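#structure-requests
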Amino acid sequence: MSSQELTRAEWCALNALADDIEPVEEVSRSLRQDGFTLSADEFLQTMFRLIQRGFVTVSQAPIPAFGQQFSERTITPSRPEDIVGDLDAEFRQTYARGDYLQRVSIPAPGGVPFGIYFDLTSAGRAEWGKAIYKAYFDAEPSV
């Protein structure tokens, strides 16, 4: 594999975004379902590489109806830790549990996203769909 090709984990992260903008929790859950047991820091490093290559963008957006109060903004990370914006503690908590944030003022079945969202860019979509990744398309999740 050349240094320009995606790893299977990177491709699977793009695959999780192929249909829509997704919160961090959905991307990490998708990677787990595909057999990747990444630590929180490894997950951030994987996503940071995709952001650096222009394949993914990241933003922070609260859901006021669920009591979330923080600024809405595009995040331009200069290091992997910057991806979670103002929400590092919330990220660490939800990543460790592997689910959605449960502490909200209005109970929601299954929880709510904690506020960091990934979006696939057109360059990311083009990379995701390349024929060199056919083996990834056809691979069964390892869990």
